Amino acid sequence: MDGHPDSAPDTLTRCLEAVAGWLRGSRLKLNPSKTEVLWLGRDDMGLGGQLPSLAGVQLVPAPSVKSLGVIFDTSLSMEAQITAITKAAFFISAKLSSWPLISLALT
């Protein structure tokens, strides 16, 4: 660092390379084609047309990513997570309503 702030994509790329190096040192593999990037922050701190890369693969920011079963979106509104949970709940309730024992117990 020579006193000039690096661009955000360059900083992110260096961080990703450090993580990839740590994984290699731990004998783990990282698949760049399956790596998802969620860009959070102010609009004026955006990528500016530059995309971060990992092992030569350009990483395009996704509108939402799933981590440990939780869906995050760029606005952190949890709207995608709530939608997914609601769909799953309706699916399960429809399946349960078709079971005869459950239908008798509910009446």
Commentary on this structure:
The chain has 107 residues and is an alpha+beta fold. It folds into 2 domains: 1-62, no CATH class; 64-107. The chain is built from 3 helices and 4 strands. It has helices spanning 8-25, 79-97, 100-106; strands spanning 53-54, 57-58, 64-67, 70-73. The strands form 2 sheets. Strands 1-2 form a two-stranded antiparallel ribbon. The longest helix has 19 residues, at 79-97. It is elongated and about 60 Å long. The mean pLDDT is 78. It comes from Podarcis lilfordi. This is Reverse transcriptase domain-containing protein.
Characterize this entry briefly.
With 107 residues, this protein is an alpha+beta fold. It has 3 helices and 4 strands; from the N terminus they run H-E-E-E-E-H-H. It has 2 domains: 1-62, no CATH class; 64-107.
